[in-house]
Design goal:
alpha/beta; Rossmann fold; 5-stranded parallel β-sheet; two-stranded antiparallel sheet; 10 helices; 7 strands; binds adenosine monophosphate
């Protein structure tokens, strides 16, 4: 459904957006903001966490390899990620652009992504239409959030196993304790949102993902956004950044 409405919107807008890379620690709101960008521009959200969870749920060899690592809140190996990301980015719905949520997460992944995009998106000899060749270069947006706010977001996160709706018991609680407002299902907590795993995920972020922001910062490609504000305010900042980026490139 989401893909169908995304492609309908894409046809309405019809212009190149290019890759949008969202950086930020777990709980910064990358998933929530990605959905707003999908609605606005009709480009797909590519969440590497979701791609991995899908492999785990389907019991693929890759999923079996990733499962224990994810449950500990550690990072899956770069080599494993490259295969998943490359095949997803080659799909037809990524031609006008895409949002990367959760990738790159190491400096090595950031270097790999630049080389991949250079080769497969911007190399005119490898594109099939002039429209693809006009693709915008990536815009890299870093969501900045206060550490205590992050903990509230992560420890309070719950989802409905039936309809997928997201809640936060501290910040956006359901009407009835622990039950979905829409269908009454008992809300669940993601394995890696458990208290003992959260500190591991934040440590992995500090150690491995901060260098990603540094990688883009030294190249003057990083745009920081204050993500401590309301969802709507953060969305307005992000859409402004993307619009300016695409406009500057096409002007
Ligand atoms: P997320 O839903 O983005 O928080 O990702 C959930 C888990 O999937 C992470 O804690 C990692 O174990 C794994 N993962 C997601 N994206 C990546 C990535 N780019 N590199 C390595 N591991 C990843």
């Amino acid at each position: 459904m989401a893909n169908k409405s995304a492609s309908e919107t894409a046809q309405k807008i019809g212009r190149q957006i290019g890759p949008v890379i969202l950086l930020g620690p777990p709980g910064a709101g990358k998933g929530t903001q990605s959905k707003q960008i999908v609605d606005r521009y009709g480009i797909p959200q590519i969440s590497t966490g979701d791609l991995l969870r899908d492999h785990v749920a389907r019991g693929t060899a890759l999923g079996l390899e990733a499962k224990a690592i994810m449950a500990r809140g550690e990072l899956v190996s770069d080599e494993l990620m490259y295969g998943i990301v490359a095949s997803r980015l080659r799909e037809a719905d990524c031609k006008r652009g895409f949002i990367l949520d959760g990738f790159p997460r190491t400096a090595a992944q950031a270097g790999w992504l630049d080389a991949f995009l250079e080769q497969e998106v911007f190399d005119k000899s490898s594109t099939t239409s002039s429209e693809e060749a006009e693709n915008c270069p990536p815009v890299v947006i870093q969501l900045l959030v206060d550490y205590n706010q992050l903990l509230l977001r992560l420890t309070g996160r719950r989802s409905c196993p039936t309809c997928g709706r997201l809640y936060n018991i501290h910040l956006q609680p359901p009407l009835v304790d622990e039950l979905c407002d829409l269908d009454g299902s008992k809300l669940v907590i993601r394995d890696d949102d458990r208290q003992e795993v959260i500190s591991g995920r934040l440590t992995a972020y500090e150690n491995q993902t901060r260098p990603v922001a540094d990688y883009y910062r030294v190249q003057r490609r990083l745009v920081a956004v204050n993500a401590d504000r309301t969802v709507e305010e953060v969305t307005a900042q992000i859409l402004g950044v993307i619009d300016r980026h695409c406009h500057d490139r096409s002007a």
